[in-house]
Amino acid sequence: MLRSDDVLSFRMKRNSHDGRTLAKSNPRRTELLHRREAPLATRTDLKPAATKDISGAMNAILADVFALYLKTKNFHWHMSGHHFRDYHLLLDEHAEQLFAMTDVIAERVRKVGGLTLHSIGEIARKQRVLDNDAEYVEPLDMLAELAGDNKTMAERLREAHNLCDEHRDVATASFIEVWIDETERRTWFLFEATRRRN
Predict the structure, then answer these.
(1) What are phi and psi of 80, to 5 degrees?
(2) Nearest-angstrom CA–CA distance, 25 and 23
(3) pLDDT for the residue 36
(4) Is residue 173 pLDDT above 60, yes or no?
(5) Which of 112, 12, 125 is nearest to 63 (CA)?
(6) 22: Cβ contacts below 8 Å, ≥ 6 apart
(7) pLDDT, position 22
(8) What is the value of pTM for the model shown?
């Protein structure tokens, strides 16, 4: 009876006299073997510098979006006061919009040939949105802080858009245009909600 090692050895000898014969006789198999050994790599017509730049910028945006999402949910959960229902629902809507961005951003990074975020720890290292761990925050202070964070997010999205334009990545740029509009809308709503009568 043949052992499994003997069977494997027999199959290898039967399929090829040596690795070069296999490669010459079946270039498709060689390509598949090479892809198996290669790190995660997506085929793209963008240059390696573009992949590096765009991936870096979008991973920073992704970390910020996750941080802003969690901060928005934090304030949503801890909202109180006279306008509780309105603010609670507003922040829930904003959080849903932010969370919807995350998968699209990560998939764009992969489509341009990059690697994206792997963990909460990596998000924490890359995020530029400041956390708010205070036990209690006044409702209007919550909204004002989120308005500032969203305004800053719009600025960073514009910077990323400019980078995509430099590298002719029109697909990522077109997503960013939508996200800028959504971010400006969140900023507007939060600003108007915090305005006091003169």
Answers:
(1) -155, 175
(2) 6
(3) 63
(4) yes
(5) 125
(6) 15, 16, 29, 30
(7) 47
(8) 0.79
Cα 187 to Cα 149: distance, rounded to the nearest angstrom: 8
Q: How far apart are CA 104 and CA 96, in angstroms?
A: 14
Q: What structural domains does the chain harbor?
A: 4-37 (no CATH), 48-194 (1.20.1260.10)
Amino acid at 38: A
